[in-house]
UniProtKB/TrEMBL annotation:
This is M48 family metalloprotease. One of its GO terms (molecular function) is metallopeptidase activity. Keywords: Hydrolase, Metal-binding, Metalloprotease, Protease, Signal, Zinc. PANTHER family: METALLOENDOPEPTIDASE OMA1, METALLOENDOPEPTIDASE OMA1, MITOCHONDRIAL. Residues 1-34 form the signal peptide. The lineage of its organism: Bacteria, Pseudomonadati, Pseudomonadota, Alphaproteobacteria, Sphingomonadales. Its cofactor is Zn(2+). It is an enzyme of class 3 (hydrolase). It comes from Novosphingobium album. It holds the Pfam family Peptidase_M48.
Amino acid sequence: MPGNHEITRKALALSSAALLALAAPACTTPGASAEGTAGTPATVDTISQGDKTQGAEAHPQLVAEFGGAVTGPQASYVETVGKTIAVQSGLSNARGDFTVTLLNSPVNNAFAIPGGYVYVTRQLTALMNNEAELAGVLGHEVGHVAARHSAKRQKAATRNSVIGVLGTILSGVLLGDSTFGRLGQQVFSQGSQLLTLQYSRTQELEADNLGIEYLRRAGYDPRAMSTVLESLARQNALEARLRGTTSQVPEWASTHPDPASRVRDALVRAGTAANGMTNRDTFLTRIDGLVYGDDPRQGIVDGARFTHPDLRLAFEAPTGFYMVNGTQSVSISGESGKAEFSAGAYNGSLDAYIRAVFASLTETNQQRIVPEVIQTATVNGIPAAYGSARVQASSGPVDLVVFAYDFGGGKAYHFVTITQAGGAGVFNPMFKSMRRISASEAGAVRPRVLDVVTVKSGDTVQSLSARMAYDDAKLDRFLVLNGLKADQRLVPGQKVKLVTY
């Protein structure tokens, strides 16, 4: 959640629409092709002026959606690799025609848009283990653009807002990252992420194949596409296990091949023999020090607790729920309900504030939603108010609750929750847990960072993983982060990644 306390009603409407979509049955994207055999598709070989104009307009909005751009030597390195692989697409021979951005986001994501704009998050970059993997991921996304996959699905676009325009041009998530997977086909606040989930299985496999071809052209080991997909699959599985969810595949990835199902295809396409550079040590050295996980400026999720040192607040998710922090909000997900914590424009009246949130839901879903009654309360000394409404969804009646807090100084924050009818009480402990935090508590919040270390004689996966900055699953996290197996022996001089404070 951002340090900027206010978001527009349009943003509120977008994020709140996700709540109502949760009760709807899963569906595939209109016009998306079903399972099929994908080869290397025909591609375009120019960046048109129209694409440049459209991309330039969308770029600042996308950067803002994903937490801003990382700057400094790490970002410069990613930019260099991204431009190297992007020119292999033939869209342009001029490296200057491409803009490659390392995004300050804790979500595993990468995408590209027409006009020469390519993006990867710091979280996904940290999961990689060599330069060829980075090139492969970015090449995959450029492949979507070169194959004009977005143009082939523009007819399915139904939004007319700026976000809707982005929806017709975004190139798509490589992964299907599980951090937002429990939210169905729509995603809290990460509007741009929502609109990158609409490629068919065939198109995703085509982009894999193009990425592999670009790796070959650039002199990289083409097997890197399969290894990064394997890391993504293992990360999905680990996150599912840590959250206690039964599915390792994001629910909204039904039209996208799970990374695990693409590993074999990518390896067959690339061949099993080593025949290209990986630049592993260079890559690890250059990404050393990246922030890993949540940025304290956007708040920190630590288990069931969310703490925002700048906003000076904290709350806890109900038992059995997990949280994901976004650039505009925090999502709270569980089997019995979903919720979002965010902020809005505030004029000093909680009653008006709550009604405005409900009105934004109405605008989005074309169904008039008003609270039955708005009641006042005090939570840990904070003035609060809440309202509820019952809405008929496709799967039956659901209860919506808006619970808002007045933090003074013209600042207010709120939860929006959705449950099956009669189940809203599951979030009462969370509503009651909201509290202000002290200056000392805020100052104690520290970011996790990527620490690349050199293996010494006597180091083992067990001894190094014990240094990971987590209270649980230290070994599993270490193994997945480094693409290692539990029985794998480390070699002195080898570089590995740790996550430390």
